[in-house]
Amino acid sequence: MSFLLRDASEADIPAITDIYRDSVLNGVASYEIAPPSEAEMAQRFAAIIGQQYPYIAAADDDGNFLGYAYASAFRTRPAYRWMVEDSIYLPPEARGRGIGKALMTELIDRCTVLGFRQMVAVIGGASPASIALHLKAGFVEVGLMQGTGYKHGRWLDTILMQRSLGEGMTTDPDPSAYPGTLFAG
């Protein structure tokens, strides 16, 4: 099956909401318990792209939505502005087909070009599939937080993974160029 990657758009919000709803209700990647509304997902989307973070969609040749990925602030304190957190969501029928890997690679590439220096993954439920995807993309495990969430009748662990982007921490960043202008203060 072939697919293409493109910038996500407001027209994708219904599909994004459906995929995330399934993840909230049936998965452990998100620690939300109640799925957000389409209006809430539209606000989240606008906040992410409004700060020029990448938000990517995957679709098949017929235009069917196959998943999405985005980068966002890990924390909004000024010193964190060089680090992004990745998020990737796929519907069950799209998993195991290389879509997640393609989205991850594209997200890493775009964040590197934008000037970010670190990417972190906060893997809820310590999902083996998500851990494997991140390891293949060059992430290393930097922490395990045990019993951080309680969902679906069980305690969940959270794995933290990280990888350097571009020059990483080998050089000083330029605070006058994006992402140096984020959260300045």
Automatic annotation (TrEMBL):
Species annotation: Rhizobium croatiense
Name this polypeptide is given: GNAT family N-acetyltransferase
InterPro entries: Acyl_CoA_acyltransferase, GNAT_dom
Ranges in a coiled coil: none
Residue span(s) of domain N-acetyltransferase: 3-166
